[in-house]
Amino acid sequence: MQNGYYAATGAMVTQFNKLNVISNNLANVNSVGFKRDDVVIGDFKRIFQEAQENLPIKNHTKEGAAYLNATLDRVPQVSEQFVEFQAGALKSTGNTLDFALKRADLFFVVETPSGLALTQNGSFVLNEKGILATKEGYPVLPSTYFQNKQYITLDIENSLSVDQSGNIFSGTLADGEQANGRFFLAQPQDIKALTKQGDGLYRFEDVTQIQDLQNADAIAQGFLEMSNVSAIREMTALIEAQRMVEMYQKVMTTHMNDVNSDAITKLAAKA
Questions:
Q1: Which residue of 99, 183, 184, 238 is 20 to 30 Å from 71, comparing CA positions?
Q2: Which domain range does residue 45 map to?
Q3: What is the C-alpha to C-alpha distance for residues 101 and 129, in angstroms, rounded to an integer?
Q4: How far apart are CA 184 and CA 26, in angstroms?
Q5: Residue 102 confidence class, pLDDT cut points 50, 70, 90
Q6: Please, where are the H alpha helices in the chain?
Q7: What are the tens digits of pLDDT across the range 41-75?
Q8: Poorest-confidence range of 5-9, 138-142, 204-208?
Q9: pLDDT higher for 77 or 63?
């Protein structure tokens, strides 16, 4: 068994996984509200030691069976993938239905067919019923949603203004502006517990894990928060990962060709 070959193979697979993450970041460099992903790479031995206490059965094997193959156990593995919630740059759009969150720990709450979700993409529209929704058609929830299950309903012909705390005002200049509710500005108890589910949405376990932050002073109307992905940073990481793949490939080729050929030649000569 050629341990070096298997170690190089495992390390290459890890770099392929890292390349997938980098490629997804680059694909979303211009996506509104996108937060970049990253991975933590560790070796199998360390990952196993950290998880061993949580295994369903204890280690009752004999000491002789506790031998660790140092080569294979040091194969790099993706031990964790996480989201970097650093705020992106604000872009002025002049659209009254565009809203940027100036705090990295705040989210809008939307209702999807699979349940409630969080998003930092504040590019909204009014649907045919006058309900404020995302471009995918998911209604944006007000602070009173859990009391009356009502959405944010607006008249497209009226002016619309939203203050920095998310209070919504609409109306005509002749009649004067009327208060029309407030955005539910969700602040998760543990932002690291959120998981991505696509379309710029994040899942959370239950509503007890989020709170409505009042007087947040965090909304900018007529702006959008852009992606926090740096194209230069991702391209540098992409080149680095590609070079690592090439290096591991050379190691695998050396084991398959040179080492095997040398072993066969020497064994044949001794025979």
A1: 238
A2: 3-85+229-270
A3: 26
A4: 31
A5: very high
A6: 3-27, 44-51, 70-73, 145-148, 231-253, 260-270
A7: 776 666 556 655 665 555 555 444 444 455 556 67
A8: 5-9
A9: 77
Provide the number of structural domains found in the chain: 2
CA Rg value for the chain? 26
pLDDT in tens, 149-182: 999 998 877 888 999 999 999 875 445 567 788 9
Q: Hey, what amino acid is at 179?
A: A
CA distances from residue 268 to 1, 64, 254, 255, 265 in whole angstroms, order as listed: 19, 34, 20, 18, 5
CA distance 179 to 168: 6
Q: Label each residue of 171-217 as H, E or C.
A: ECCCCCCEEEEEECEEEECCHHHCEEEECCEEECCCHHHEEECCCCC
pTM for the full predicted model: 0.78
Q: Both tokens of residue 142?
A: 């007000």
Structure-block tokens of residue 135: 């471009």
Sequence-distant (≥ 6) Cβ neighbours of residue 144 within 8 angstroms = 150, 181, 182
Tell me: do 115 and 186 sit in the same domain: yes
Same domain, yes or no: 37 and 95: no
